[in-house]
Amino acid sequence: MRIKIKYIFLVISSFMFIACGGNVSQKPVVTVSLQPQKYFLEKIVGDKIDVKCLLASGGNPETYEPSLTHLVNLENSEAYFMVGNLGFEAAIIERVKNNNTDLKIYNNSDGVDLLVGTHGECCHHNHLSGEHSHDIDPHTWSSVKNARIMAKNMCDAMIEVDKKNAGYYTKNYNHFVSELDSLDARLTSMLASKKGTAFLVWHPSLSYFARDYGLFQISVGQEGKEASVQQLQSKIDEAKAHNAEVFFYQKEFDSRQAEVVNEQIGAEMVIINPLNYQWNHEMLIIADAIASK
Ligand SMILES: [Zn+2]
């Protein structure tokens, strides 16, 4: 009950702020789930739209709970751009759709050739039921090729949401696609001699990246539960058999456990942040770590 009162107060105060002409931006708001989406969308919308993001750069989508401010921001948005297939997204839509029946909801991963079974047997990202498989790998944004599809979805959606700026969005989108093309060409040439190369990752966040460039991802951590000694040993054996030389891990997942496992492998430990706003830099860090071996 207390939470409800606080929530109502926040909604009222945010309306008052807008009504009084406070410092609140007058631009239309579009909310996205993750920072890489914010990066993509800001390339397209420039200064026409205020892009709000639910998850902070160091956030963990596995444990993310939206704050009241996030929910209020979402309710004041013209549209919500989901990554698609992240469990918290479905839960959020349930919570806001009654309060903003006009909120347009788009799945940015529509049309992506989704990977199944690369993200653990029963993914706790994914509490969606019905038409969605529980085995879908949600990390679609860790791929330049997928980013092209996501950017197209975003551009099409923005033209629906804000038709008067269609020409501006299309021009920016075309420019962004040429940036993505050169990034993809750069990564392709960096990794050209690395086809079939294995790399380790604690959390299986790079399945689409591996598919794009013909690499082999070995994920060590188990989804949502402690890995058993036998499971860890079999991953260590697999890493050795495939001569994996790089071990990617994220600060928000268990880095201490990763270091302990790596004592038996001896790979180079590389910190990545697949949820970084500087998405293009992350793509280059990953490719560079593998290419420099
Ligand atoms: Zn995941």
Structure report:
The chain has helices at 2-19, 35-45, 68-75, 87-96, 144-161, 166-190, 207-212, 229-241, 255-262, 279-291; strands spanning 29-32, 50-53, 79-82, 104-107, 198-201, 216-219, 246-249, 268-271. It has 293 residues and is an alpha/beta fold. It has two domains: 2-187, Nitrogenase molybdenum iron protein domain (Rossmann fold, 3-Layer(aba) Sandwich), CATH 3.40.50.1980; 193-291, Rossmann fold, CATH 3.40.50. The radius of gyration is 20 Å and the shape is globular. The N and C termini lie far apart (57 Å).
Structural class: alpha/beta
Total domains: 2
Named CATH architecture of the largest domain: 3-Layer(aba) Sandwich
Name the helicity range.
Answer: 40-55%
At CATH level 3, the topology of the largest domain is Rossmann fold
Determine and state the CATH class of the largest domain: Alpha Beta
Compute the CA-based radius of gyration: 20 Å
Principal-axes shape call = globular
SSE pattern: HEHEHEHEHHEHEHEHEH
Q: Characterize the biggest β-sheet.
A: 4 strands, parallel
**Poorly predicted ranges (pLDDT <50, ≥5 residues)?**
9-23, 122-132
Count all strands and give the number.
8
Mean pLDDT score? 87
The fraction of residues assigned to DSSP E strands is 5-15%
CATH level 4 superfamily of the largest domain: Nitrogenase molybdenum iron protein domain
Strand line-up across the major sheet: 2-1-3-4
Bound ligands, each once: zinc ion
The tally of helices reads 10
How far from one another are the termini?
A: 57 Å
